[in-house]
Amino acid sequence: MKFWNIRTKISVTLIAIAFFAINGRAKASNQIIAGWHDFNDGWQLYRDSGSSKSADEFLTGISATLYGGDGTRDAWGSTDGTYGISNVVETSATDGAMSHRTDKPNIYLTLVNNTGSDAVLEQVVFDLASVSLNAPQELILYYDSGDLAVADDTQINSAAGVNSNGLANVSDYQDYNWSLSGLADQTLASGETAAFRLFVTNANNNFQALALDNIAVLGQGTPGDLLLAAMAALKNHITGANTLTTAQIKTQAGIFATYADEVGDSETNIVQALDLVETYESVAGYLFNTGEFSRTDASTPAKALRLAMFDVYQAILDDVYNASNLVAHRSLLDNYKFESSDYFPGAVTPPADSNAVYSVQINASQPEAWGYEVSFQFEAARRPTGAYLAPGSIATVTVPTALVGQGYEIRVGAHVADLKNRPNNYKRLNRVSLTYPINSTTVEIASPFGGGIYIEVPYGIEERLATVEFKNTVRAPFYSNSSTRQTTLSEWQNAERSHPGAWADFETDKFMLTVPTDWIYAYDDPVTLMADWDKAMDACSDMQGLPRVRPKTVLYCIIDVTLDANVFSPGYPQSNDNYNPTSSAGGNKDHDYLNGPKFAGYHHLHEFGHAAYITKFTGELESAVNLFYVPVHHRMFNVSLDEAFGRSIGDYGSRTIGRDQAALGWILSENFQTGYPMDGTSTTNNQMKYQHRGYGKYVDIAGIFGWDALSNFWHSVAVDAENGKTYPRNTDPADSRILRMSKAAGVDLTPLIHFWGIHPVNASNLKAAINAEGLPKSALIYDRLVRYQTVVPMDAAGFEAHYQKYKSGIKQNTEGDRYEAMRTDWNATLGALTVSRVQEIIDEYFPNGRPAAGEVQSLPYAESFETDLGAWVQSVADDFDWTLNGGYTDTTNTGPSGASDGGQYLYLEGHDNGVQYKTASVECLFDLSAVDHAELTFDYHMYGEYIDYLSVDVFDGATWTFDVWIRTNQHHFSSEAAWSNAVVDLTAFVGNDEVTLRFRGKQKQWHTADTAIDNITVTGAVYTPFEQWTVTAFSNAPPGTDLTASGNPDGDRFNNEHEWALVLDPMVGDRPAMNMIFDDPNFIVTYNRRLNSGISVSASWSDSLVDADWSTAGMIEVSIGQNGDVETMAAIVSFSGTNRFVRMEVQ
Question: Which CATH architecture has domain 357-599?
């Protein structure tokens, strides 16, 4: 057996080490301490110290190099397969030799002992041949220098006449074994260096050479520990005790990497690893002292060493810092810190009082989640504490007994992402976070990096709170507005944001954020920030059909030095933005996370969409996930539906891609034109991936039927999951999904989904299932498809207008050329053909034309929009939507200050919505078939310089009548101005059982145009004709009574027709026909009149009873009640003189 390490054969190394352990680590003579035989790498290599060759075979723990002469000759070599006379070389192949000439007379062999024990050097051996007789005639061996107790340049041995061989190319070279017994000291102690020099002289031609191969130093030695030897070699290089070449550093780094997981296995290993880092930091500076660096560039010794030290740092963190080592080697780890912690995660000073106690209450529960699975659902929930561990400190954490042995952990450092597979530069260690299990009520924690301290709560823990105490920690900024802890704005501004911990946490029950303290120490308002993020999370949860408050936060975001993956990705925490630790933000960073979801890029919610695990049609994997952005901005931040849709891919650069443009992007495609579905394949032809048209169907459903239609659908998926029924997440079967979506919306969605490129698989079966559920056709879907026909460009100019709005959404690699051709060739014929393609879908699903619109409302009807839009629906034949609001609108100098009735009203929000010169409409369906008279009343507020108009339109089932009522421009001049009331006569439309009323508003070129409506009523009356009235009025009249209109059986001043019109009794004399009271200084006169009688009834006043004096000036006449076709009127007449007369006039 050979007791050496073959560098490329680790298994041999392990066998050798095991052998020595079993045999008391005995030494054997003539071991190969270091040997070189492979010189086949090229021509003239290893000629100087900067390019020396490491030993091919060596005793474990020995570092050895060779260089000099005229370098290698790869065509030469000895064939005997031994070092010197008998020691076998690991291969007998001819693999080159060293060229040794008198113009370059020295070849150096250097050995460093890192075995941990002494090595005895017994022989220097080699194989030798000459090129010719003109080669050097004499070869001398010297002890050159080092730590042996031998004088430098001591000659050891020599040989003359070595030029006679002449067989240098390929042959069995002559073997030389030169003893070192003549040296006064042959023992190379651990840590010592010895260098030998082979010198040639006396050549007839300086350019003729000797060939040396299979060079070795033999002796006795105990194989050392590879890991310790590698660390010692790296340290000796750093200190200059034994400088290594780039290749040698790589070799030692490779050895260390192989055994890195043993660093924490013994105190010796730990001591040497910690010492190596301290040595490096004292000589070269801390690891990231110049910032990030390449993962692969080891082209110089300094760069190779930095990469090697990266592995040492990582091994210490991974293998040394754990609960058992903290107990066994506490003294070693106490106050030990990485100086690179100043770079990341940040410099933090230990607490002044290590015994001070900080306590915090946390939510120590994570019950099982309801509904379908979402990403990271089963991972531990992270609970921030506001405590921070300074680098090098050992802190004590005290927890309640209920947390012990239940799977809870204490985490130090928030950054859990492992960056080992990232292709870019090293910007921090791959792993920087540590966990300590809670197996006792007191747990000690430590980290050479330090970091924020969190309690990791395992999945499935039912409701509980826990108070946790920390000793020897510092505080970190911590804002919380959760059910467990509430931070006031004053506490934040006056204390929390100033704490010294390097990272800050923000937390609600729904959203969590971790950012550098450097970003927030001057940040003023986390209250609004977290409230906005909560709104965003609510919109997401609502659409998912899941509870707003979950077992862990809906989304957790963190900033890091780089992305977690090669691209944006979901995560818990989710990290899709980076920062530079060497750059200061000055305490108030301009960043998406701190600006809030109103202003954040779409990619945050895109990646959240992946984690949300909503079911999808096949092909929608990278499209449906963009949908979450839309309700967040539309529902919660009053962005128009179309702009929110546009920005949901591409942010503001795509704001012009609303539903119309996305629909055009689809119907102008070759697939639509030829009747094929939208391509959702995993090919370059995919028409859904990262494209608005891929999820336009969902936005259309929300725009037509409200977001509840989608929320109800995914809620049904959650209910099914609770009952054991699940659906393929990314390949939900089309027909089943269309049916379930239709049930959630309450109408047949097939036409709309078909239009957007998802065709039924079995159309007849799906139709039968839709009919079996009683799901009606939708007039709103019909209108929407008709609208898409109207936006088809009919000439090149119209196409260019579409192109300019949609160009950021064009898939250039497959449709770019097609679009360019259409820009030139588009004409009315192509436009008409495209319209006909849409018509084919309309005809397929609506063979009888437009169906009735919405649920019919009966009379009387009232709506004040206190919770939602009630029966009113957003029109699809418009440009943007009405908005529900209370109080002032978001735009100054426009809109009301509050509702006219109750707390909410409906208005047009134009601010930042890109809706200049655009209209918005809401409509509702009414049954007017059972009334003879109908009337719409509503309150309106039109304050805003750029209001265009507000109108009421009526659809009788066949034709729209526009502007039945209209007001243009602003009619109010402050937000506080009183609302106005409008009355609209609908009598022209009575007798129809489906009448659609529509409010339509438009703004001009700017956003101060917030028209509002509220307090809507629709009433109707059934008239009593004169002939029908007489049957009741004269039911007890004696025979012969005059029942005609001109008859007057009671003999008063009113004939029968007047009695009918004034709602009097024709059999009793009525004097007077009105009632009067005096309420100083007014007379109040009340009377009844029958509507639609054809007779005018009104009041007037006079002070003289002279006909010319009768007047209505200053008189107020109002309706104070109505019962059917009978209206009660009140006339209010002021009185200031001695006489005033009031009369009722019937004509």
Answer: Sandwich (2.60)
The pTM assigned to this predicted structure is 0.70
> What six digits make up the tokens of 676?
């094929």
Q: What is the pLDDT of residues 410-425, one digit of tens each?
A: 999 999 999 998 888 9
3-state secondary structure of 475: strand
CA distances from 876 to 666, 915, 980 (A): 18, 15, 28
Determine the pLDDT at residue 854.
Answer: 65
Q: What are phi and psi of 802, to 5 degrees?
A: -65, -45
Burial (CB < 10 A; 0-12, 13-18, 19+), residue 490, is exposed
Q: What is the pLDDT of residues 1044-1073, one digit of tens each?
A: 988 999 888 888 888 888 888 888 887 677
CA–CA separation, 698 and 139 (whole Å): 88
Burial class of residue 167 (count of CB atoms within 10 Å of its CB; 0-12, 13-18, 19+) = middle
Beta-carbon contacts of 55 under 8 Å, excluding residues fewer than 6 positions away, are 34, 35, 36, 62, 63, 64, 65, 66
- Beta strands per DSSP E along 844-941: 861-863, 873-874, 883-885, 905-907, 919-926, 933-941
Nearest in space to 469 (alpha carbons), one of 495, 441, 490, 438: 441
Q: CATH 2.60.120.200: does it fit domain 861-1034? A: yes
Residues contacting 525, CB < 8 A, separation 6+? 489
By the 8 A CB rule, do 409 and 437 touch? yes
In the structure, what pLDDT confidence band is assigned to residue 1134 with cuts at 50, 70 and 90? confident
User: Worst-scoring range by mean pLDDT, 187-191, 216-220, 367-371, 1018-1022?
Assistant: 1018-1022
Residue 739 has pLDDT above 50, yes or no: yes
Q: How is the chain split into domains, by residue range?
A: 31-221, 246-274+286-320, 357-599, 659-846, 861-1034, 1075-1146
Closest residue by Cα to residue 16 from 216, 218, 226, 191: 226
| Region 255-268 average pLDDT | 93
- Amino acid identity of residue 1137, one-letter, is G
Structure tokens at 361: 């209450």
31-221 and 861-1034 share one fold: yes
| Longest Cα separation, the chain | 168
For the chain, the C-alpha Rg in angstroms (whole number) is 46
Cβ within 8 Å of residue 740, ≥6 positions away: 713, 716, 717
Taking CA atoms, 1030 is separated from 442, 854, 1033, 1062, in Å, by 96, 41, 5, 14
Average pLDDT estimate for 875-894: 84
Percent of the chain with pLDDT over 70: 96
Please compute the mean of the pLDDT values over residues 717-746 and round it to a whole number.
96
Q: Which of 87, 159, 154 is nearest to 123 (CA)?
A: 87
CB atoms within 10 A of CB 1032: 8
DSSP 319: I
The SS3 of residue 701 is helix
pLDDT tens digit sequence for 460-473: 999 899 999 999 99
- What's the pLDDT band for 816 if we cut at 50, 70, 90? confident
User: Which whole number is the average pLDDT over 940-960?
Assistant: 90
CA 183, 189, 195, 197 torsion: positive or negative? Answer: positive
What's the pLDDT band for 17 if we cut at 50, 70, 90? very low
Whole-number pLDDT of residue 169: 67
Q: Regarding the domain delimited by 31-221, which CATH topology (the fold level of the hierarchy) does it fall under?
A: Jelly Rolls (2.60.120)
What distance in Å separates the CA atoms of residue 1076 and residue 1069, rounded to the nearest whole number? 18
660 pLDDT more than 90: yes
Write out the CATH class of domain 1075-1146. mainly beta
Encode 616-648: b = buried (16+ Cβ within 10 Å), e = exposed.
Answer: bbbbbbbbbbbbbbbbbbbbbbbbbbbbbbbbb
